[in-house]
Amino acid sequence: MRQRSVRWGELRAPELRDLAAAKAIVVVPVASIEQHGPHLPTMTDTLLGHEVACAACERLAETQPCVVTEPVWSGLSEHHMRLGGTLTLDFQGLFAVVGGVVRSLSRHGFQRVLLLNSHGGNVAALKTVVEELSIELPHLQLVTATYWQLAVDLVDPLLETQRSIRHACEAETSMVLALRPDLVDESVFDEAACPDARDQRDFRDDGAYRWQSFADKTPSGALGDPRAASAEKGRQLLDLTARRLAEYLADPGFWGARG
């Protein structure tokens, strides 16, 4: 079966019924709408997660049916609220929305679903969502992963000022420059730049978790240095993360013993 599109919202109901019958993989991007410093749009995480998912499934669709739902665009972003521009859910709200999407997919006959995260504040919550829904829907192969964590070994060598993906940083700014340069205000890069302590040699992680407002970490709302960003670097980052995601989706081991 040749897919006309990997984007759920562009497909018609008969096409989606055929995809369910063909045991298509479904990717559900779960993101956020939150402040991203003075230079990036609040839709940054939603834009990046959705585009990486679509690019990965476009690669995969040649050999494995797959489809990407519209993003769950609001996540757990309470830690960004003091900086303005942020729309947040509580855990109950996130669980209700994601649970409704996953149950809908299950009722339509889809059997493998990835909750692809693109916001750091969702990581722990989505693990709990997967645990709870896997008990409720034992026939469903349900996985969550954060797109940049799957490709950290590919991403890090491209970055000049940081390790991994931060927030409104060199990496995220590069990717938005590649996708939507019209939404990036390069005139305030100097104002936005704020180093992340995790990239300093003397940083120590004692393994304990303490909640902290993002406003206490950075006055600008960014964590990283967008001055090192470029559209070409963004294109490379998007390509590498999509390629790695496609590899995982095609791997039966990614889906567990039943894969």
* Fold-level CATH name: Rossmann fold
As an assembly, this protein is single chain
Which strand order spans the largest sheet, edge to edge or round the barrel?
2-1-3-4
CATH class: Alpha Beta
Query: Structural class of the helix and strand makeup?
Result: alpha/beta
Summarize the structure.
Helices cover 37% and strands 8% of the residues.
SSE layout and pairings?
Elements lengths: L12 H9 L3 E6 L13 H17 L5 E3 L22 H17 L4 E6 L5 H14 L4 E6 L5 H4 L14 H10 L9 H4 L38 H20 L9
Parallel strand pairs: 1-2, 1-3, 3-4
What does this structure look like?
By secondary structure, the protein is of the alpha/beta class. It has one domain (8-202, 212-253): Rossmann fold, CATH 3.40.50.10310. It is 37% helix and 8% strand. It contains 8 helices and 4 strands. It has helices at 13-21, 44-60, 91-107, 123-136, 152-155, 170-179, 189-192, 231-250; strands at residues 25-30, 66-68, 112-117, 141-146. The protein has a 4-stranded parallel β-sheet, with helices on both faces. Strand 3 (112-117), helix 4 and strand 4 form a beta-alpha-beta unit. Helix 2 (44-60) packs across helix 8 (231-250) and helix 3 (91-107) packs across helix 4. The longest helix is centred in the last third of the chain and has 20 residues, at 231-250. The radius of gyration is 18 Å and the shape is globular. The model has no long low-confidence stretch (mean pLDDT 94).
Keywords:
259 residues; alpha/beta; Rossmann fold; four-stranded parallel sheet; globular
